[in-house]
Design brief:
single chain, 299 residues, alpha/beta, 6-stranded mixed β-sheet, 6 strands
């Protein structure tokens, strides 16, 4: 009897593992093809973007048919969303309508939507608009990639202008700052401690920050008083990146965004010139920042 029970449990566990292996989502891969671009008109800096950040439309949508410039080239539709995790947000229905009309052959999503069990977890509630586009790609058999470059490559670029401790502080806390607008974790210390080791794998960031206590010490040393606009700086546990980050964290964030936008523009141009119909989703600032670059390269 006991053997039958144990066998039943084993078979149930095996069935669950097989189900998860075949049906659970895995993060979209990084694009591994060769991409190199030299732009005569680069993306906007964040200082340039800040001057229009309150006035541009949200969502901000770019659609370019590059075949009008070269018949061998494809198209791009970039849906720059106001970040949402509300599955009833009108943007979600709009994204699907535009996706169906555009009929992409490849899609690029911001970030790396991770583990998700279809039917048990909602992609928008879990991963926002990027999760929904990833869902559409899986539904229609469309090849999907993250438009991010590997983190080590981004960090290497940022370290050209900032100290390792500054970069480590930003990259450890970036996921926390980005997600707190959707709800504060029950235990911020545990949330961030889990990020420290995997966000400091870059050789120059190792041994910079090891514990939440180290983060607290740096915050208390560097972020007392007021920010550049004269507003009191909150504890990092209460800080969101929705309206910018304080002092040099804001500068690191701006450089990170420029590096990301430059890579993103290059990736889009590369794929469109291969003849792909590329559907892209990201926060609304990204298409605003790279619009002038895409226009020059593809129109």
């Amino acid at each position: 009897m006991i053997r039958k029970v144990l066998l039943g449990i084993f078979l149930l566990v095996l069935a669950a593992v097989i189900f998860l292996f075949y049906f659970a989502w895995r993060s979209p891969a990084f694009y591994e093809g060769n991409i190199e671009c030299k732009f005569s008109v680069p993306p906007m800096t964040m200082a340039e973007y800040d001057s229009i950040s309150q006035t541009h439309p949200r969502p901000f949508i770019i659609e370019i048919d590059a075949s009008k410039k070269d018949p061998k080239w494809g198209k791009v539709l970039f849906y720059g969303a106001a970040h949402t995790r509300d599955k009833n947000d009108p943007q979600i229905a709009d994204i699907e309508k535009r996706w169906d009309s555009f009929d992409p052959t490849l899609c690029l999503v911001e970030g790396r939507p991770g583990f998700l069990v279809p039917g048990l977890m909602d992609p928008v509630e879990k991963f926002g608009e990027a999760g929904y586009v990833y869902k559409l790609s899986r539904r229609d058999g469309v090849e999907a990639f993250t438009w991010e470059q590997p983190l080590d490559s981004e960090i290497t670029a940022v370290l050209k202008k900032f100290k390792p401790e500054q970069a480590a502080m930003f990259y450890i806390l970036r996921p926390y700052f980005s997600n707190i607008r959707f709800g504060k974790p029950n235990n911020p210390n545990e949330y961030v401690q889990a990020l420290i080791e995997k966000r400091t794998l870059h050789p120059e960031l190792q041994n910079t920050i090891k514990t939440v206590g180290d983060i607290d010490a740096i915050w208390n040393r560097e972020f007392r008083g007021n920010d550049k606009n004269g507003k009191p700086i909150k504890d990092w546990r209460e800080t969101s990146d929705e309206y910018g980050l304080p002092l040099w964290l804001g500068d690191v964030s701006a450089e990170s965004n420029f590096v990301r936008n430059e890579y993103l523009a290059c990736l889009i141009v590369t794929l469109v010139k291969q003849g792909k119909r590329v559907f892209v989703v990201g926060g609304s600032s990204h298409p605003v920042c790279i619009e002038r670059t895409l226009n020059l390269e593809l129109r």
